[in-house]
Design a protein that fits this description.
The protein is mainly α and 193 residues long. The chain is built from seven helices and two strands. A two-stranded antiparallel sheet has the order 1-2. Helix 4 runs antiparallel to helix 5. The chain is globular, with a radius of gyration of 17 Å.
Length: 193
C-alpha cells in the first residue's frame, strides 16, 4: 500500500521537527552551529528510524487487521516538542498519530496495533546497541549507533507510559503483563544503565 501525499507531508514535517528538537538537546541548546549540525544529522538518523518506523509499524499492524490507517501530524504537539527542547533542555514529544478507521478493531487488535510501535523502537534500539558494541563507542559508527539506540529506547519507554493518548494506555488496558514486560526493563535501562 502506498502512502498518500498528505501522510507523506505530515511524516516529513514531524521528522524534521523532532530531529531539530533532539539536536537542540544533544548539542547543548544549539550554541555552536557545527555541533548543532552534527547533532542534527545524527538526530535525523535516529528519529528517522525511531519515529518513522514506529508510526509505520502502527499503520501496517492496523492494515494487517483490515483497517485503514494514516499518520497525521499534530502541529501543536510539534511546537511543544521544539519549545521543551529549546527552553527546557529535554524532549516531550507528541508529534501526531496513526489514525485508524474503516473497521472497528477489537481491544486485542488495538493493543497489538499499539504495541507495534514501541516494539519496533525496542528492536531498533537493541540492534543499534549491538552495532555500537561491535564497533566500540570510541568509533564514529559506534557513537552514532549508541545515540540511535538511546533515542529508540527512550521513545519506546515514553510511548509505553500508561497515560491517555499514548500507546502505553492502550497496551496496559489490553494486557498488563505484556505492558510490564516491555515497560519496566526500559525504565531500568534508561535510568540505571
Amino acid at each position: 500500500m502506498s502512502l498518500e501525499n498528505q501522510e507523506l507531508t505530515d511524516l516529513l514535517i514531524s521528522w524534521i521537527s523532532l530531529s531539530a528538537a533532539f539536536a537542540f538537546v544533544f548539542s547543548d541548546g544549539g550554541l555552536s552551529v557545527t555541533s548543532f549540525g552534527n547533532a542534527l544529522a545524527i538526530a535525523a538518523l535516529a528519529v528517522g528510524t525511531g519515529f518513522l518506523l514506529h508510526e509505520l509499524a502502527h499503520k501496517y499492524a492496523a492494515i494487517h487487521f483490515g483497517a485503514k490507517a494514516e499518520y497525521r501530524a499534530w502541529n501543536l504537539g510539534l511546537v511543544i516538542a521544539l519549545a521543551f527542547a529549546i527552553f527546557g533542555g529535554f524532549i516531550f514529544a507528541a508529534p501526531g498519530a496513526v489514525y485508524i478507521f474503516g473497521k472497528r478493531v477489537t481491544d486485542e487488535e488495538n493493543g497489538i496495533i499499539s504495541v507495534a510501535g514501541p516494539a519496533m523502537n525496542i528492536v531498533i534500539g537493541i540492534i543499534s546497541f549491538l552495532i555500537a558494541g561491535a564497533y566500540g563507542q570510541a568509533s564514529q559508527i559506534g557513537n552514532v549507533a549508541s545515540v540511535v539506540g538511546s533515542i529508540n529506547l527512550y521513545l519506546a519507554m515514553f510511548n509505553l507510559l500508561p497515560f491517555f493518548v499514548l500507546d502505553g494506555a492502550k497496551v496496559f488496558a489490553w494486557n498488563k503483563i505484556v505492558w510490564g514486560i516491555l515497560f519496566f526493563p526500559l525504565v531500568f535501562f534508561i535510568f540505571f544503565l
